[in-house]
Amino acid sequence: MIKSILIPTDGSENSKTALAYGIYLAQQFNADIIGLNVIDIRALEGPFFSDISGSLGFIPYQNYLPKYQSILEERAKIILETFRKTCEEKNQRCKTRQCTGIIPNIIAEEGKKVDIIIMAQRGEHAQWSSGLLGSTTESVVRKSLRPVLVTPQEFHPFTAVLAPYDGSSESNKALKLACEFVFFLKLPLHVLVVSNNEEKGSEIAREADEFVGPYQLDVKVKWIKGEAHEEILMYAEQQALDLIVMGAFGHSRVRELILGGTTAYIVRKAQIPVLLYR
Known about the structure:
Blueprint: E1 4-8, H1 13-29, E2 32-40, H2 41-45, H3 48-56, H4 61-89, E3 94-101, H5 103-111, E4 116-120, H6 135-143, E5 148-151, E6 161-164, H7 169-185, E7 189-194, H8 198-212, E8 219-224, H9 228-238, E9 243-247, H10 253-259, H11 261-269, E10 274-277
Parallel strand pairs: 1-2, 1-4, 2-3, 4-5, 6-7, 6-9, 7-8, 9-10
Antiparallel strand pairs: 5-10
Helix pairs in contact: 5-6, 9-11, 10-11
């Protein structure tokens, strides 16, 4: 099911947690890990340094740029070497790769070569976060053709999985992924339908129950009333679940893109990993 895992890293503590999840899954699935560090080309090409150097009387921007680029490349080497050593300590196969470009674009492009991308909710500047999902992670989720596992601050092994289901094609794909995932790892699965319409909610729950039946899993399908984003997180906490698997977009795609929607809210607020499939 999973034979190759891409883990973007910026050396932050959060990205180290992403690596911990990557090693955990790689050893469960006997998969290879690829560590990726991307130097943001916008930091090298943008006008910021040119403007600052001119206004403050620094050395010309053109003279400073090669030194700045050299610093970033050396930092990338250190980050990837630490990544490699961590994998070696866990007897985990890994390769490392360093690229320069627009970070989410490079991650999504490199992601085409693997089965899954694992990355942190927020990166090296999380201490200044406004509470929103890291812009790089959110952009990768929107661009990636592969499932993206978004990890929280702390690592915990998986013991039970939650798959929210709303009947959309996206959540259908995610439910299939969740079934395959828990079947391989021999974990219990909870399927949660949230709807304020009793007839609709019962129908979607029956549909989910029929879908998971052939997998012969330890599964519980439940329908509840409420607001999806609140009920999903509350249910995961009450049932002590360790992973949420859900579609990256639901029925209202325009609302998802403009306001963030249920998916983005779950990823921003969840204290457990969220596996997104678009």
